[in-house]
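Researcher: We're teaching a course module on how sequence relates to structure. For the next exercise, students receive a sequence and then see the predicted structure as tokens, so they can try to spot secondary structure elements on their own. Here is the exercise chain.
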Amino acid sequence: MARGRGAPAGEDAGRAARHLTVRGRVQGVFFRASTREEAERRGVAGWVANTPEGDVEAWLEGPPEAVDAMVEWVRGGGPPHAEVTELDLEEVDPARYEGFEVRG
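Model: And here is the predicted structure for the students to work with:
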């Protein structure tokens, strides 16, 4: 999808998007459900899913401040029983997701 004129990667007409891979103790600790709740509370769209490698992958998009706040929430450890040891973050073009879904 094309970005707005002059918009940096990861932003499109007031909308930011980030693709995350989260490593650590992030499966079996309600990471996906908690991420969905936090995203919905902040007005962020996208999805979150477990990976076969034991990581969690997420796509976050919405108002730049809300997306940044979600990234900081993940970086800070996410839900109470999770332990984030590594966060890979990529700025991506918004895909115009609506709502937030937990994937398999």
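Model: If you want an answer key for the exercise: The chain has a mean pLDDT of 91. Strands lie at 11-12, 15-25, 45-50, 56-62, 83-91, 100-103.
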